[in-house]
Amino acid sequence: MNLEKNRKKAVCIMSGGMDSTLGAYMMKKEGYEIIAVHFNYDQRTEAKELEAFKKIAAALDVKEQYILDLEFFKQLGASALTDKSIDVPTGGVQEGIPVTYVPFRNGIFLSMAAAIAEKEGAEAIAIGVVEEDSSGYPDCREDYITAMQNAINLGTKESTNITIKMPLVHLKKSEIVTKALEYKVPLELTWSCYKNEEKACGVCDSCRLRLRGFETAGVEDPIAYV
Amino acid sequence: MNLEKNRKKAVCIMSGGMDSTLGAYMMKKEGYEIIAVHFNYDQRTEAKELEAFKKIAAALDVKEQYILDLEFFKQLGASALTDKSIDVPTGGVQEGIPVTYVPFRNGIFLSMAAAIAEKEGAEAIAIGVVEEDSSGYPDCREDYITAMQNAINLGTKESTNITIKMPLVHLKKSEIVTKALEYKVPLELTWSCYKNEEKACGVCDSCRLRLRGFETAGVEDPIAYV
After folding, report:
1. What is the ipTM of this complex?
2. Within a domain: residue B203?
């Protein structure tokens, strides 16, 4: 009866996208009980992402879920994802940091995940960052995440010891697709598009990276595109 | 005319309390333009703290101010400051981490301050943490803040270089009182009580530390106590 109580717990940050979904499935396979955390920060496609998150959390049979409303990024603006006066680029992935960059987003997400982990007695946080083959965001790099883990452990109780897992950090998008199939991830439930909520646009950076990943993996993407 | 534009900026996290107020005054004296940031996280005394913050921000003639509503800690609970089912202790300051501890609060505050600093082009963040003579919170220690600074600089743009200033970290409360008088801080506007919003209770940890500081400094506290 007490086995349940002793299972190790992981706080999984889950957007509803392909990467963080695979990350959560990998954590589950590793034996963690999943505490699913989703952030609504008024990003353009939040309604669709939240729907995806809920379906995935149900499919994954998570232990607990937090859906957190974060007004902050809207108040801050400064990103095409949260500020509707800035267009989402659709011309192709460029070098450098794109206008979809949200300042220190993963820092804020990880800090909140740390607070949840401390409250819930979880020993891990999982985040679906991908360093290469991604969008050039500085808060998706391994050295940053490792530094954040160090800060979190110094800034919480002595008894709190958290490992930040980033199982996808060195994968390419095509490897993510292959691994997702291997782990039986319900890819048809995931949502990656930055722009649309009905059918994916196919031309924003996120759609392009996703589609390229499926193409390289030689697999068809199960979601609908315009 | 362009001098204004070139003045260095600091994001100051200001609760409306004595410590963070002195910190902001010290930053101003150092020549920084102040971007004042206040967090409303549904703590018990927020109405009073916000009133204090606004008056202090006006007295300090800040360049800009952000008042951020953060539902998160209320959703999380787990602290006497945000969960009204847990009483604020009034029996005297105890060893160890008190029930007023809010999990990784300063981590979340600093992450948001970092996002603001990146957007505003600020080169510093100031936080009024006090390591000793304080309440034993792990997120108030110098080594944690330094680790967080490292994480923030790795997780933001190459062009973003932020120093986290903690001008009070090694002061005692009595030294804070003395310094506050020296810097002409309007102590009568500051609010420290965890419990009341009319007159300070005088017996919560925060009141006790404040009163002890004034007593040791040989100065009378200008605010009203029950």
Report:
1. 0.90
2. yes
